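pasting input
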Amino acid sequence: MLVTSDIQALATAVNGPVVLPDSPDFAAETLAFNAGTVHRPDVVLGAENARDVAAGVKWAAEHRLPVAVQSTGHGADSAVEGGLLINTSRLQELQIDAVERTARVGAGVKWRSVLEASVPLGLVGLHGSSTDVGVVGYTLGGGLPLLGRAHGFAADHVRSMEVVTADGALRRIDAGADAELFALMRGGKGNFGIVTELEFRLFPLGDFYGGGIMYPGADAASILTAFREWLPTLPEHASPSISLLRLPDMDFVPAPLRGQFVVHLRFALAGSREEGDRLLAPMRAVSSPLMDTAGPMNYLDVDQIHMDPADPLPFTAGGALLKDLDEGTAADLLELTGAGSDCPLLLVEIRPLGGALARAGDVPDAVAGRDAAFLVFLLGFNMPPLAEAVAVSIRGVLAALAPHSTGYTLVNFHGAPGDEADRARAWPPDVYERMRAAKSAYDPGNLLRFGHAITGVPAGT
Ligand SMILES: Cc1cc2nc3c(=O)[nH]c(=O)nc-3n(C[C@H](O)[C@H](O)[C@H](O)COP(=O)(O)OP(=O)(O)OC[C@H]3O[C@@H](n4cnc5c(N)ncnc54)[C@H](O)[C@@H]3O)c2cc1C
């Protein structure tokens, strides 16, 4: 049990605030974007710099307390109970090197801030569907980008990172220094340490075309067939995705679509209006769109493509990597989640992979999914009276799709972590075994044991 002198020892070792559950600041310091997850750590450290993170980890190790980390709470798939929560949201350092085409960010930086600094210089990073997501948590989970088919996973393009390992040491690692740790941290999530700074590649921004088409949900079957036939015609610099949406009657939904069941095609293209219109033409001819926003786009409006919610929501999710999306897979999916079903899910999303996502980066990492053709991602509200039905539905859809799955998932789309076997689904078996060995080496006391954490190899084996 922690006593006052323990807390004082932490407070004198750090610059940032040390916040206890009875403090009026506790709710704000622990708040997650996934509002269904309520963290209850014994104590929170609002780290102001890398030294604070190192001091916090050392202090926790001395007191045998587990350590969790949160920046935005977009990935708060499970609640932190007890221990020390390190809030990294104050680590806002951001530098763009336009000549080297790299960005260096602190652990609290969101993708939106990167784009606001880089787009005026003609450069973009490999963010995902929402730029409200934190760069570090996203990238450590592999980071499936909007333009992933053109460039690969975000983790493939990390140059270096600064990380506090469970022994409290602050290390700068890259392909040459602590190479195995560097490989496994890119895709291995927060298993081996707390990243305080990340350096990664940026890409030149040329013409950009993007947006979405909303169709009536009643036409889902024919739209999905057209989508499957259309995909092989697309170049790698085009990234589409499609989802079935049961849109709630809420402010973040455009007024005419509130409360409707729709199909949402999303389209991002590193290309011109002429190329975008030409590529999209077959999908524009399918059904009668309720809304069509696709066209040349100011890159800073990129969140309009997926239209992810910008404000915290309580949600639960799950995902799987698919080998195929053949007629049978699509039919199974529609039977369970389509217009005629009683599916309670808000979102049933299919993201085609392939292209550069299928190729390992120059410096190998721990990302799964190279051999998968699609990611299916399921999400629903995690609040009464829907919560139980949503959880049951996610399990049911994933079970029905199992014959079409590679057996694996991407950790960023895994949803609530289950037992060890369930958590292992996020990595190829050979990578998972290397991760277990690295866990034993870098975190022998299993300090970092929350969320998608794995356990090391038992001593003596
Ligand atoms: C609206 C929305 C859209 C999304 N779109 C995409 C997408 O297109 N592609 C994609 O790949 N993912 C996507 N995600 C998933 C997202 O990438 C993960 O949830 C990711 O973990 C979020 O990182 P965060 O730092 O913002 O969240 P947090 O909840 O703050 O962190 C999540 C986890 O990341 C790890 N972590 C965070 N910071 C650190 C650190 N400094 N050191 C070590 N570990 C750390 C920890 O395990 C932590 O529990 C999306 C999520 C949401 C809610």
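fyi The mean pLDDT is 96.
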